[in-house]
Amino acid sequence: MTAAAILPYFLAADPPPVAHFAGNDSSEESGRDHAWAERIKAGDHDALTALFTVYFPRLVTFARRYVASRDVAEDVVQDVLIKLWIDHVTWRIPDSVAAYLYRSVRNRAIEVRRHDLVIAKHEETVLTLSVPAIEHPGTEQLEARDLRLAAERAITKLAPRCREIFLLNRVHGLTYREISATLDISQSTVETQMARAIRALHLALADFRR
Q1: What is the third-level CATH fold of 27-112?
Q2: 87: helix, coil or strand?
Q3: What's the pTM?
Q4: Nearest CA-CA partner of 127 in 142, 149, 159, 106
Q5: Whether the predicted pLDDT of 192 surpasses 60
Q6: How far does CA 175 lie from the centroid of its chain?
Q7: What is the pLDDT of residues 17-49, one digit of tens each?
């Protein structure tokens, strides 16, 4: 994939949906999640297993940004899902099950770290997902690699909250509404921070658009 092919997605104010990203707010996934939630509330352990199977890897990747190791991240996610099962009778099913899970994992991870939020140095970015490793790069591949590195540097320089919101949207695929619910902030704040992030990336990646 060339630099020219990557830029439209990376800098888009509203990126096209990506099916394999966690948290895409499609009616199909939302309906599936709510069906599982209703069954979990009724005491159906198979529904919890189904929810666990789909969300566990995604939530571990997300939790890894806040804690020191993958083992701790897995423990965080397990804690959240176990608590969900323990409290299933009184669980108030949220509008977005995905946002509820991400928010719960984030809160638990911060609690584990005693509110010392740590963003992992090697956060997986959209460009890492989009650009495959190339053993013998040609000119276009070198441009794509340079773009990825420039983008990673630009993301690192974003303010912590701005970076967190940007990565939740571009890497984890959460909608603005779901990010708002996950971080307990207004949707307008999400929109403002995303606009700032995109402006910063436009400036940082200006040479690649020529």
Answers
A1: Rna Polymerase Sigma Factor; Chain: A (1.10.1740)
A2: coil
A3: 0.55
A4: 149
A5: yes
A6: 10
A7: 443 334 444 678 888 999 999 999 999 989 999
